[in-house]
Amino acid sequence: MSNDIEEKQPNVECLVDNDIDASPSKHVVTKTRAAQLARSERNRQKALLLRQSKLANQQINKKDGKTSVGCTSVVDSGAGFLIEENSQVEAKKMKVTEEPAPVIAGDLTICIECDKPFLDSYLSSTYDHPVCDKCKDTEDKHSVITKSEAKETYLLSEVDLMKREPLLKCVVRRNPRNNRWGDMKLYLKLQVEKRALEVWGSEEAIEDEHEVRRKKKEDAKIKKFNKNMKQLRKEVRSSLYSVKVQGHQHSYGEEQHIGGDEYNKTCSTCGHQVTFEKM
């Protein structure tokens, strides 16, 4: 019996040893799974942060009227390292707002209508015409005129309006008749009248030139009308304009013997000679 007990004791020790060895492996597996879960959680948090940053950039670009995601470019600094720069941020930095210059007492302009000083006005800033906003009369005295009307009414050319010194300022507006047409250029009527007097000398010279051009237009219309009427008469009464085409008929005289079997004869009208042979 004692031998049997001694033989069974090693088996019990083996079982105890196996149980002791199994418990650390379970702890190792548990620690491994916990580390994997922690790592996956960290990766998920990083992905969420990256997605939120992209969405924030897209919202900023949409506010600026752009739909593309802001991207960074790398620039070589020339000192051994690279610099990341954002093109959109650089574009925003380039926008510089100009502030008006400080007002000084000597910079005030005197209005030519009321003789009062003023700081700024629409006519002064747009057309360099020293009139304050209180004295501005856009209906009559300070009305504007288009470039085409200035050419037709005051007989001014493109050079007179846009290149002759001092240059006349104008305001560019969209054409109200059709947006596809060219933009309108509006000039101040007072300045256009002054420029016309500089070019032509007086109002009488402008009226005389109007009369000369009107007469030329009427003469050109009459000439064109007569030409069309003549062409119409030719088409309707073509028999009156028929051209007779007839060839010259020779009237030869007597035959003259030249020698051998050759003879000739001469036209009595034009002197044409014909040589021929007789058998």
From TrEMBL:
Start and end residues of each XPA C-terminal domain: 141-192
Keyword DNA-binding included in the entry's annotation: yes
Any one Gene Ontology molecular-function term assigned to this protein's record: zinc ion binding
Keyword Metal-binding: yes
InterPro entries given in the database record: DNA-bd_dom_put_sf, XPA/RAD14, XPA_C, XPA_sf, Znf_XPA_CS
GO cellular component entries: nucleotide-excision repair factor 1 complex
Family the UniProt entry places it in: Belongs to the XPA family.
Subcellular location(s) per record: Nucleus
Keywords per UniProt: DNA damage, DNA repair, DNA-binding, Metal-binding, Nucleus, Zinc, Zinc-finger
Pfam family, one: XPA_N
GO BP annotation list: base-excision repair; nucleotide-excision repair involved in interstrand cross-link repair; nucleotide-excision repair, DNA damage recognition; UV-damage excision repair
Primary localization class, coarse: nucleus
Protein name in the entry: DNA repair protein complementing XP-A cells homolog
